[in-house]
Design a protein that fits this description.
There is one protein chain. The protein is an alpha/beta fold. It contains 7 helices and 7 strands; from the N terminus they run βααβββαβαβαβαα. Strands 3-4-2-1-5-6-7 form a 7-stranded mixed sheet, with helices on both faces. Helix 5 (about 120-130) links the parallel strand 6 (about 110) and strand 7 (about 135). It holds the Pfam family Glyco_tran_28_C.
């Protein structure tokens, strides 16, 4: 049922989410020609960006046959379906987005928003990156993170094992170990 003589390219979606926040720096970073080119070079075919409350509007793009390769929307009642369909997720450092993506076993690049004061989210992202469950970047390092990314090096996150991460966060917050 495929095309005669041609190969049908598998659709591989990169889903970008900023949650309910405004994180224009992340949307801008994904919308740069070098990031888009590198994602396509790595075999991803489509980029879908959830821009939240942001004011920066990415450039919608299409390829020769008219199919969209970069689309965006502001909010959705549930991003679960987008996460399920994604081949790669690029997310803000919100714990809900992080753990939902890891639970689905999707490769994840968490981009830390350095504009947030008192950013405990970066602690969580960096700890999970150290444990090789995800990649951690800043908006200005996103391109290099994509270039260096080897999704095969990631270790599946076991949802039942939150204790080491919780202990790390408790220590960081100054609570004694039990």
């Amino acid at each position: 049922m495929g095309e005669e003589g041609g190969t049908v390219k598998e659709k591989k979606v990169v889903f970008v989410t900023v949650g309910t926040t405004c994180f224009d720096a992340l949307v801008r970073a994904v919308d740069t020609p070098e990031v888009k080119k590198e994602l396509f070079r790595k075999g991803y075919t489509n980029i879908l960006i959830q821009i939240g409350r942001g004011s920066y509007i990415p450039t919608k793009s299409t390829v020769e046959n008219g199919s969209a390769v970069l689309e965006y929307f502001t909010f959705s009642s549930s991003i679960a379906d987008y996460l399920k369909e994604a081949s790669l997720v690029i997310s803000h450092a919100g714990s809900g987005s992080i753990f939902e993506t890891l639970r689905l076993g999707k490769p994840l690049i968490v981009v830390v928003n350095e504009d947030l004061m008192d950013n405990h989210q970066s602690e969580l992202a960096e700890e999970l990156a150290e444990r090789k469950h995800l990649f951690c970047a800043r908006p200005q390092t996103l391109y290099q993170s994509i270039v260096d990314m080897d999704t095969g090096s990631l270790i599946a996150y076991q949802p039942g094992d939150a204790e080491p991460v919780a202990k790390h966060i408790n220590r960081y917050l100054g609570f004694p170990d039990d």
